[in-house]
């Protein structure tokens, strides 16, 4: 399906697709420049995570212009406690699946903890593995401290999305899941934002940054800001799809809005199936072979 030469959306909701990505724009494949141009037009957009074929195709058809194969696969796919545990080997096949299953969305691979911090050479080696798997860009965590890595990848022709503010991979150094940018820390987050943009990144995630600091950074940077818990004034917003769709149970983080209750839908389906099997109601003749 990903090999179709000039795909046109065949979804019932095609006329609801926003202009960044819609029929009128004739965008065959979203490129990083389209996201930068959207900022220049003041057009906001949404990013979601995806880790598999079906969500990738559904979100692509829904007009989501960028999909992130997050290292959040650690806790949302593999059942680890934190993102620190997931490896390049575990993420590469997920990136390949998402890339194979989309036609228009920009597929971004999140570099996992331990795969790029040592220096530009390590970062390049890892990023190349993800690009060969089908990614169109990579994302890595860290501002000023990762400027060299961002520059090296950019120089190698690999678009980079930065990620600053709260960076989950440095949870232990940061001292927990804490909002960034309050009071004197505002200048630190702003310095990181400028470092990432100057190093050549095409966009930057602002995670759990105060709304005022995120708004200020968004105004100052020429590249789009993608907020998660960063208030309403960033150029784009990102959520983990299992949070957004209510597949993950338990109290959602403050920055999450649930747009569906997929956990209930799925569990009710499982219960209905089990009930019918127990009652001898499934399968019927219609599901059987003569
Ligand atoms: N399912 C999921 N959603 C995410 O957003 C996400 C992941 N996984 N895994 C990787 C990182 C980790 N992130 C997280 C995870 C939890 C909180 C959290 O518990 N936040 C609380 C407390 C914030 C505070 O201390 O003020 C919240 O209510 O928002 C924040 C970011 C964001 N990413
Ligand atoms: C929350 C987003 C930005 C992320 O890094 C991830 O899903 O891994
Ligand atoms: Mg991540």
Automatic annotation (TrEMBL):
GO molecular function: 3-methyl-2-oxobutanoate hydroxymethyltransferase activity; magnesium ion binding
Database matches in HAMAP family: PanB
Residues noted as binding 3-methyl-2-oxobutanoate in the record, renumbered to the chain: 71-72, 110, 139
Record note on quaternary structure: Homodecamer; pentamer of dimers.
Its biological purpose: Catalyzes the reversible reaction in which hydroxymethyl group from 5,10-methylenetetrahydrofolate is transferred onto alpha-ketoisovalerate to form ketopantoate.
GO cellular component: cytoplasm
Co-factor requirement: Mg(2+)
Regions of compositional bias (Polar residues) in chain numbering: 1-13
Protein name as annotated: 3-methyl-2-oxobutanoate hydroxymethyltransferase
Enzyme Commission designation: 2.1.2.11
GO biological process terms held by the UniProt record: pantothenate biosynthetic process
Broad EC category: transferase
Protein location: Cytoplasm
Residues annotated to bind Mg(2+): 71, 110, 141
Cofactor note as given: Binds 1 Mg(2+) ion per subunit.
Major localisation: cytoplasm
Pathway assigned to this chain's UniProt record: Cofactor biosynthesis; (R)-pantothenate biosynthesis; (R)-pantoate from 3-methyl-2-oxobutanoate: step 1/2
The keyword Transferase appears for this protein: yes
Keyword match Hydrolase: no
Gene that encodes the chain: panB
Family affiliation: Belongs to the PanB family.
Entries under InterPro entries matching the protein: Pantoate_hydroxy_MeTrfase, Pyrv/PenolPyrv_kinase-like_dom, Pyrv_kinase-like_dom_sf
Region Disordered: start-end pairs: 1-25
Record: active site: 207
Keywords, in A-Z order: Cytoplasm, Magnesium, Metal-binding, Pantothenate biosynthesis, Transferase
Domain of life: Bacteria
